Amino acid sequence: xxxxxxxxxxxxxxxxxxxxxxxxxxxxxxxxxxxxxxxxxxxxxxxxxxxxxxxxxxxxxxxxxxxxxxxxxxxxxxxxxxxxxxxxxxxxxxxxxxxxxxxxxxxxxxxxxxxxxxxxxxxxxxxxxxxxxxxxxxxxxxxxxxxxxxxxxxxxxxxxxxxxxxxxxxxxxxxxxxxxxxxxxxxxxxxxxxxxxxxxxxxxxxxxxxxxxxxxxxxxxxxxxxxxxxxxxxxxxxxxxxxxxxxxx
Length: 249
Prior knowledge:
- The structure is a single chain.
- The chain has one domain (about 1-240): P-loop containing nucleotide triphosphate hydrolases (Rossmann fold), CATH 3.40.50.
- It has nine helices and seven strands.
- It has helices at about 15-25, 45-50, 55-60, 90, 120-130, 150-155, 165-180, 200-205, 225-240, and strands at about 1-5, 30-35, 105-110, 135-140, 155-165, 185-190, 210-215.
- The chain has a seven-stranded parallel sheet with strand order 3-2-4-1-5-6-7, sandwiched between helices.
- Strand 5 (about 155-165), helix 7 and strand 6 (about 185-190) form a beta-alpha-beta unit.
- About 45% of the residues are buried.
- The model is unreliable at about 55-80 (pLDDT under 50).
C-alpha cells in the first residue's frame, strides 16, 4: 500500500493518484486507487471526468471483472463523485470482492458517512482484501492534519507530491517528517507543474525525484505530455520498489 501525500490542497495529490494508477494499468497491473481523504473526497469524481472511464460495477457486469449483482448502498446522502463506484468501506469489509482489472484502474470512493467509520481500521482491512500483487494507492488528506495519520500508518511507503512553490515545499516537508515518524518513509517525490527540478529538492526531502509533471490546464490528465510524465514516474516506482511485489509488465 502506497500513500500519495502532500502539503496543502491544490498540490496535485489527487491528480497524481489517478495519473499513477492509470500508468500502472498501461503496464498491465491490476491497480486499485482508494480515496482516503474522507472530508474532501474527489478521487472518483476526477477519475470520471478525465480520460478513459475507470472500472465500475457496470464494467464488471459487462465482463471486465467478476459478474455479480450489486447490493444497494445504505440510505443516506448520495455517494461522492459519480455514484458508480464502490466505496472503500464496502470493499474493505468484504461486502463486495475487489473488482481488480488489468486493463484499467479500480477507484474506490469515500464512504457515505465517514464519521461513522474508523479510518485506520478500514484501511487496514482494505490492505487485507486487495491482492498482494496489485498496487494499492491511497489518496491522502492534504497537509499535516490529524486525518493524514490514518493512511500513513496503514501504508507501507508514501509518495510525496508538491509544486515548486516555497510554502508548498515547506508543507510537504512537514508531511514527509510525519510519514517517517509513522514508519511510512517516502519512496520519492512527484513535482507538479514543472519541467525541471533543482537538485536541492531531492536533498530537502532526502529521497529521489520520481517525476516532473508539466503544467497543463485545464485538464492535465488528458494531455499526452502529462501522461508520459506519469508513465515515467510509475516506471521508476516499479524499478525501485514494485518489481518483486506487483504483477506488472
